[in-house]
Amino acid sequence: MNNRNILITGGAGFIGSHVVRRFVYNYPNDNIINGDALTYAGNLENLRDIDGAPNYFFERLDITNSEAVRVIFKKYKVSDVIHLAAESHVDRSIEGPMEFVMSNVVGTVNLLNAAKEFWTAGEHVFHHVSTDEVYGSLGDEGLFTEQTSYDPRSPYSASKASSDHFVRAYFHTYGLPIKISNCSNNYGSHHFPEKLIPLMIHNILNNKPLPIYGKGDNIRDWLWVEDHASAIDTIFTKGRLGEAYNVGGLNEWTNIELVRFLCRLMDEKLGRQVGESEKLITYVKDRAGHDKRYAIDASKLENEMGWKPSITFEEGLSKTVDWYLDNSEWVNQVTSGSYKEYYKKMYGNRT
Ligand code: NAD
Ligand code: TYD
Q1: What local confidence, expressed as pLDDT, does residue 349 receive?
Q2: pLDDT (tens digit, 9 = 90+) per residue, 208-252?
Q3: Which listed CATH number (3.40.50.300, 3.40.1190.10, 3.90.25.10, 3.40.50.1820) goes with 196-219+252-347?
Q4: Can you give the residue ranges of every domain in the chain?
Q5: C-alpha span between 249 and 232 (Å, rounded)
Q6: pLDDT of residue 267
Q7: On the CB side of 297, how many CA atoms lie within 13 Å of its CA?
Q8: Distance 185 CA to ligand 2 centre (A)
Q9: How remote is the CA of residue 86 from the centroid of ligand 1, in Å?
């Protein structure tokens, strides 16, 4: 299909930048509009390589402002939305939930309202990008499926669950053509060093303590960000309207095993003695309400559309570390200024 005007919100963030790049290259006949407020997590450096592409447009857009959202829909005759803009870090949501309510819930409803107002004829898709954290926390057994009841437990996951409910409600009430994807934890290049993997890479490089919350036995299911972008492309293109699809790669790790693995990988890449980086591991006060385990069953997406992750965790992590080693300028830029204050506030009194 040609000449769509696809608004990608949050396109300057970690996952959004990978999705924008993919769509700009894969769909040269469509216009890709990146609407992003450029919060601390948004960075146009993430997209420098596609800056001059003829089908790429950037708009500084705060989705909490309903009128600003309407202006973008009108200006670009937006035909489709891939919605990634959100406050995304659980620890920040514990410190201040209201920004999460505003961007994740109110912002989503503003976008839904604009789509409802402007999409009166023709074919459209509103793809809402969400998280597996809406399902709550698993015990030792089982996986989240699309049938798992919602049971969000952090302010972040509560805000994402709420946004998912609004998206579904607009399908049932107004017939808005929606799709939802719920993905597990992502890792890869351009990841802001507040989340586990990029924070640990940054600290290992700088010989700083590696703060493990609690006993380090919480489990996350990790997916390479490019594989999430390919899943979004697949669902956006081929997924059924009104449906939700889980996205994940059956790749569970306890935090401590993951960090040990990363330490060994980086010892090798940095020419350090085996075991040197592991000495930096420091157990710190646990996260409040820390979810024990996430694990995703993505068989609906795999069976219906043939999607599969393209690389192993070992390959993806190695590529990711190489990217951080090769892009110290990017890292220096995002860790200057307010990052230092954030780090002090979050980790200063934690031990
Ligand atoms: P991120 O924090 O790296 O980026 C979020 C982007 O949204 C930033 O560019 C930021 O500037 C923008 N943004 C925030 N508030 C905004 C607002 N009010 N108006 C416009 N733009 C705003 O997040 P991410 O990790 O790339 O996550 C993107 C999406 O994917 C989120 O919706 C998140 O819930 C979801 N998700 C993330 C993961 C993960 O592991 N990171 C996993 C599953 C789902
Ligand atoms: P995070 O990357 O914040 O993702 P999420 O909480 O959304 O899953 O955290 C991943 C896991 O790593 C989670 O169990 C919390 C843990 N963690 C640490 O042990 N230390 C840290 O400094 C961070 C940021 C996370």
Answers
A1: 87
A2: 999 999 999 999 999 999 999 999 999 999 999 999 999 999 999
A3: 3.90.25.10
A4: 5-185+225-247, 196-219+252-347
A5: 14
A6: 98
A7: 13
A8: 10
A9: 4
